[in-house]
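Researcher: Quick sanity check before group meeting.
Model: Go ahead. Protein one:
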Amino acid sequence: MDRYAVIGNPVAHSKSPTIHAAFAAQTGQTLAYEALLAPLDGFAATVAAFRAAGGRGCNVTVPFKLEAFALAERRSPRAQAAGAVNTLKFDADGIYGDNTDGAGLVRDLTHNLDCPLAGRRILLLGAGGAARGVMLPLLAAAPARLTLANRTVARAEALVAEFAAGAGNTPLAAGGFTDLAGAQFDVVINATAASLADEAPPLPPGLYAPGALAYDMMYGRGDTAFLAAARRDGAARLADGLGMLVEQAAESFLLWRDVRPETAPVLAELRRQIEGR
């Protein structure tokens, strides 16, 4: 039986085994998928042991995405752009690294939430790994403008400068949270870690255009501080990152098994489990 895994530290909380078991059952694929806890100084050794035992691929979660990038002998363009890898595939040519986070976000927005991105004004909050990982897919969706805002302005400016050459016809802007005053956006995406601390980025009022969507990459925490603040500020629609989790997993499954699973029933069941319905 083909073996796959998610490797992280911590990892016991991961929904990936549940998601991929559902994908396998739905598509008639015979495989095993497990969660592997790697020591903080033992990621490469954990991957090597899993591969030697017959592993065909793995997902990678915090804090190992940069190490996975370094471990990959070949990388997809989106992994190269992200500077991080969340999916490894083992084959006769060695270790292939991909990053499915951005594709998962865009598909959740456009497919599950029926929120087209072409021609929209998008605000991306944060300039760390989560933001970097979604920049290329967001730009590929041809928004009217992509603005990056971060507490440390220099980090936002550096990220925008890095992606400027591949922005196509989409104007890119960078600044701090206070610099957003007076601007309005159609989609606001929180890629900061603020929700982990039950906090919201200090945004000025009036950011949300009529019909705007507020999206928090965090999931499983109900109404995050960011989403609550967005509701108060007039966001018409709110969404967490559970759909992104399922969609990025589907991208990994497609890479490994060459078949794309239907995500809607898996997302609905996962939502039901998390919300206790």
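Researcher: Fine. The other one?
Model: Protein two, sequence then structure:
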Amino acid sequence: MLQTTGIQVNLVVYQGISINRITMPRAKESPLGTFLRERRTHLDAVALGFDTQRRRTPGLRREEVAQRAHVSTTWYTWLEQGRGGAPSAEALDRIARALMLTEVEREHAHMLALGRPPGTSYQGADSVTPRVQRVLDSLPYSPAMVRTATWDVVAWNAAAAAVLTDYGTLELHKRNILKLLFCDPRAKQMQREWESVSHFVVAAFRADVVRAGASDEVKALVEELCRQSPEFDALWRNHDVRNYSDHVKRLRHPVLGEIALEHSQFAVDGRADLCLVVYNPVNEEDTRRIRAWVDSRKTTGSAPG
């Protein structure tokens, strides 16, 4: 056996005849390649319009995945074999669509290939699942809602309707926190510290929009707010960006008087475009008043829409 750099040459001798057999080094096992290979075996070739005759293994062939992803068969083969380096994020997304990966599987592929999650894309939502609504309803005296990255309120509980805004009485296009804060005199009057709240909200809104990949989706909303509210227009031009942090919301409620609420927010099902917002009374007196007000509304039939 002869050893050269990177290539092993085995000298095989058969009764006076010498044959050189060159063995190329094997590619390193690729977690990404293994994952992609396994995923394509689960696809239905017939449903995707491919002939299944003379097919020895289930799923799609490599050339069929390459065809669906608009990449070369050779390059895709190398990718499964762990050769040729990391793919671009754009090429990986084409492969994800070709393999019909779920969002979780797409993220996993990006982590395996590039060591980072894929860029977010805004999905939009006009409602939540019954399970999420049950979570909201399990907080009977803490105002809670689910909002989108464009700050549209898509779900809320009875306490939110009683203490914040009865969103069920509003038209769909008006169920937006920014529209209420800057364009609704009643909502504006309820904010005891409107100026600081408005600064914070616009800066947090800008960050949310970019994080969720919804910049294009909010253009019409931003233009509308800039036309209707000089205050919003000025704040938007500042380009300030902030993350949410723990803070206390102080309101002048028309029935309850002044109340203070601690603010917390949580991601909904790991989606960057949905946020669960919960407000908890900061003291026993506010808790008592909110409890009595929410209960009185239940007896009169008022409930979230």
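Researcher: One line on it for the slide.
Model: Confidence is low (pLDDT under 50) at residues 11-26.
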